[in-house]
């Protein structure tokens, strides 16, 4: 069976995150809520990094609908 490297990496990251919180769903949800209240700081820095790459301008355009 063929393994997708992106899926494998995602599963590995998910497992690392779960281990960090002792597989406790309540701790995971609390951590995600705190991250959300902070405005997703990693997501904001990722968007900034993407804007500084060679992506075409329309790739980061916000949907006006």
Break the fold down into its secondary structure elements and pairings:
Elements lengths: L4 H16 L4 H13 L3 H11 L14
Unreliable sequence segments = none
Structural class: mainly alpha
Sheet with the most strands, sense and barrel status = none
Order of helices and strands: HHH
How far is the N terminus from the C terminus?
41 Å
Number of helices: 3
Shape descriptor: flat
Write a brief structural summary.
The protein has 65 residues and is mainly α.
Characterise this structure:
The longest helix is centred in the first third of the chain and has 16 residues, at 5-20. The model has no long low-confidence stretch (mean pLDDT 80). 62% of the residues lie in helices and 0% in strands. By secondary structure, the protein is mostly helical. The chain has helices at 5-20, 25-37, 41-51.
What descriptive keywords fit this protein?
mainly alpha
